[in-house]
């Protein structure tokens, strides 16, 4: 065994307990760079807002000083005196409004564009992954990365830029201004505030933990409901409604308990923080009043001090919340970027092609050994050899789980063999362009055809988006599908329901056949194409298949032996190897494994 194509598949290592991926700054930069101008502008505006927020308390103080003087002295024209500071303050408020509007607009633009670019790139990155990648990762989790993780990353990013910048600037600026107003009072605040904020952060993190638990529990309950509703036929068939209802109510009960506890926690937190805040205000007035009485501080300065110290307190609390958000945002971002840089081992495109007219369609499997990347060490095929002569039909039979579908997967290049080669007209298929191979050469029809939630026309066109409507009709006729499609009120425009549920198994299968035929493939793979059908549907589908297979190299993977008796060669697969090969009559005469399978299926059929 000289060639090992399995040794550079990093995702396989993930079978061990999953490690949290690291945040990829270089990747992030790639997405951020195009938005840099808007981001910088947003940062400047947010910074401006913060600076204004520092000015406002001081202006308020000026205003209050005018009011205080007027109440004390009752001289001069109140309106005239108050106009100046009031107009200044109003102007500041206006400017602050405009800046806030500007930076929020710019920041959400940056956030949305980065998120959209991330979604598009991640989706493309996921689509190009190896089939083995999808064996190892659950679809739900992959979809989560596209939705929840990107969402979380985006909001954290926006929050960090807007709140983080503002909070830090404001904390620093307001601290300076309150220090300038009254160093003594500032000293007092500097002892009390951090203690309170730290206590608040501590309670906050406990509450967040509880909230996470509550969310998990809600998700668990939803999972139970989802499973029961999604599989309602099975639930009904086993009369398990009561049990499902009981299961669901247990989970809902648990989640409501956690949420109630969370509610109590939030209530206590709110109560305590209100108390603390009010005490700070009162304490400041109390201590500041003392200074005012001793004429060390003006009333206006006390007002400025109060408002500015409130800003400090709010900003510090924001910063403590932000830390949690940064951690969550970074880990969501790390999950988003993880698969973007992951290269597949089997590329989607690239490699040679064989011109259509010289393509013969001769496939050979030579000394193939293969085990699935998700189950290394479990050899599905061992020294497997098979010849698919051009324009002949070869059937593979054998026990279920014997590796029949795996042979088809290797031909489609869903996986590469560990040892040995698969050749098409003498070329190693690893040197050929995989997308050309799949799109132009091979037609694949399997047991459970998957249709997409669009019109029948588009579903058939999935095989070849460029063909005319007439070609679609011709393929449908060949697949015995035209008549039933025309019997629908909307004909070819009929939209098939989710996962094709509005069609019967046989109808879906015939659309799938039309979809494969429209490629005009030289090689056709039928993977147990009729085994899920009832006898009548099987007959119509079989008829379509017989028509479809003529003039093509065909590989049939068969469960029911009755359908493949006309095959040119029948191979019996056992323990990953071809044990017997020949025509139906030859193999029967030989009296080996095939004869045994036939005998067993007959007796099963009679029972
Ligand atoms: P058959 O088509 O003959 O029923 P398969 O080719 O589907 O058999 O499967 C052969 C063996 O490979 C079985 O043991 C099966 O469990 C295993 N297998 C099939 N598909 C996968 C997969 N995607 N990942 C891991 N093991 C697989």
Question: Could you characterize what this model shows?
Answer:
- The protein has 607 residues and is α/β, with parallel strands linked by helices.
- Helices cover 62% and strands 10% of the residues.
- It has helices at 25-32, 36-73, 78-127, 131-136, 139-181, 183-230, 232-237, 241-293, 299-338, 404-411, 434-441, 456-461, 469-478, 482-487, 505-517, 535-549, 584-590, 593-606; strands spanning 363-371, 379-388, 393-398, 419-424, 427-428, 442-446, 523-527, 553-557, 569-574, 577-582.
- A six-stranded mixed sheet has the order 6-7-8-3-9-10, with helices on both faces. It has a four-stranded antiparallel sheet with strand order 2-1-4-5, with helices on one face.
- A hairpin with a 2-residue loop joins strand 4 and strand 5.
- Helix 3 (78-127) runs antiparallel to helix 5.
- The longest helix has 53 residues, at 241-293.
- Mean pLDDT is 87; it is low at 1-17.
- Residues 135, 372, 374-375, 380, 398, 400-406 line the site of adenosine-5'-diphosphate.
